Amino acid sequence: MKIGNIEIPNKSLFLAPMEDITDKSFRFVCKKFGAAMLYTEFIASEALIRNIEKTFKKLEIEDDESPIGIQIYGHNIDAMVEAAKIAETVKPDLIDINYGCPVKKIATRGAGAGMLRDIPKMLKMTKEIVKAVKLPVTVKTRLGWDTENIIIDKLAEQLQDTGIKALTIHGRTRSQLYKGVADWKLIGDIKNNQRIKIPIIGNGDVVSGITAKEKFEKYNVDAIMIARATIGRPWIFKEIKFFLETGKKMPELTIEEKVEIAKIHFLKSVEIKGEPRGIYEMRRHFALYFKGLSNFKPLRLKLLTSIDKNEIFDILQIITEKYKH
């Protein structure tokens, strides 16, 4: 599979861009377990062109993260074009446009999935960004605004005509948010449309090797993008690849292995962001690394309230001792 000049193995697994999740430390761990394509957190174009420090920090990428895409969103065409040019200066492998985020504060302003209510503007914006940068431009979007306005079949062709090099489709409408079941049949219809020549990446409800295998075989997508199922489980990429290669489930990770992964992630977070910020931002991950452990609440509370690196390592060691078989 090629996205522009980027060679990516067939049936690859991509890490979806997620706000407050896909920072450098999380990307580091996901890459370690086999994510073939990484993305930054999505970046607000207006904040980027105003040189907001926190937003600019999201542009920081490393050479060993390649291939990696920077995803931008916004409702103003000029701001989006300028943001794409700024993003290009840090030398990612591609620029991705977010036309899929369903969050109210973004979509109701006409950005993210809000663009699904103004297709002429979406197409003009995409065309202008493609013209403005030398890197491959890709798009991530949804089936439509709601079930009465499912437009992805025609939209996919229109977006391809703007010059984008790949299209990721989340199999839900904006109004569904993350509820219900993703409609992969529509994603498959796009992939099997004879007029579509660019790679089609499917997204939604892939949580295991079994579901990934079904999507690849039944809908013929070029790659699968995984979002929420990676949180607290970055090894999912390895699990899925194991199943695709062997037809068997990978043995469940031991608590010792999960603790070691959490430690690697934690140390990377602190290394990149320092203390206490690197500690604070690990809290959303810690609880999910150990989801499902019985009588875990007291230790979880300690993990989520401690601001001392050594104390957190002591808590992780207690988790290992308490739950190892």
Shape: globular
- CATH fold label of the largest domain: TIM Barrel
Question: What is the CATH architecture descriptor of the largest domain?
Answer: Alpha-Beta Barrel
Order of helices and strands: EEEHEEHHEHEHHEHEHEHEHHHHHH
N-to-C span = 43 Å
Largest sheet: 9 strands, parallel
Q: Approximately how much beta-strand content do the residues carry? A: 5-15%
Mean pLDDT: 96
Helix content: 40-55%
Report the C-alpha radius of gyration, rounded.
20 Å
Q: How many helices in DSSP terms?
A: 15
CATH level 4 superfamily of the largest domain: Aldolase class I
Q: What is the total domain count?
A: 2
Structural class: alpha/beta
As residue ranges, the low-confidence spans are none
* Total number of beta strands: 11
The first-level CATH class of the largest domain is given as Alpha Beta
Task: Describe this protein's structure.
By secondary structure, the chain is an alpha/beta fold. The chain has 15 helices and 11 strands. Strands 3, 4, 5, 6, 7, 8, 9, 10 and 11 form a 9-stranded parallel beta sheet that branches. Strands 1-2 form a two-stranded antiparallel sheet. The model has no long low-confidence stretch (mean pLDDT 96).
